[in-house]
Amino acid sequence: MTRAIDYGGMMHRAMQGLIAELLQDVADNGLPGEHHFFITFDTSEDGVEIADWLRERYPSEMTIVIQHWYDDLVVKADRFEITLNFGNSPERLIIPFDSLRTFVDPSVEFGLRFETQEHDEEGEEPVVEEIAEEIAEDTQKPGGEVVSLDKWRK
Questions:
Q1: CA-CA distance, 55 to 49, in Å (whole number)?
Q2: Are 132 and 48 in contact (CB under 8 A)?
Q3: Are 53 and 43 contacting, i.e. CB atoms less than 8 angstroms apart?
Q4: Tens digit of pLDDT per residue, the chain (154 long)?
Q5: Beta carbons within 10 angstroms of residue 151's beta carbon
Q6: What distance in Å separates the CA atoms of residue 118 and residue 152, rounded to the nearest whole number?
Q7: In angstroms, how far is CA 133 from the centroid of its own chain?
Q8: What is the C-alpha to C-alpha distance for residues 30 and 23, in angstroms, rounded to an integer?
């Protein structure tokens, strides 16, 4: 039997580690400058803990924004925990790193896409700049809202 190197799995774990390190820095020091994050995660993934009303509204996928107001950001080895404000209602979310689908910081046009087993076979993925531009447009809308990245899904 030939052993193969699992580059995909190694890259996936490395990207999760990068996000964990980044979020730990934000927990310790706050968000620098204009940086802010759009994080999309699978709400049906094991270990995701969100309010029932959020799960009903977003049964498969949800995007959160970490920007102006967040509280009690805690980073663990396998997840992060954060309190966000949804319509003047603070809600605690527990998000395992395995549930992450995308991470974007539109202030610097940086983005990561976490592939799943159901990834597109044709291999054509939107580039980071397209994701960042669209999200930047969405941030110009007044008020806080959950942004859907479904338009890039095939």
A1: 9
A2: no
A3: no
A4: 688 898 888 888 899 999 999 999 999 999 999 999 999 999 999 999 999 999 999 999 999 999 988 999 999 999 999 999 988 889 999 999 999 999 999 989 899 998 764 444 444 444 445 555 555 555 444 444 455 555 544 4
A5: 9
A6: 14
A7: 16
A8: 9
Residue the block writes with tokens 């338009």? 151
CB-side neighbour CA atoms (13 Å) of 104? 28
What distance in Å separates the CA atoms of residue 107 and residue 33, rounded to the nearest whole number?
A: 9
- Give the pair of three-digit tokens for residue 58: 């977003």
Could you tell me the two tokens for 22?
């980044």
The one-character DSSP state at 7 is H
Question: pTM for the complete prediction?
Answer: 0.73
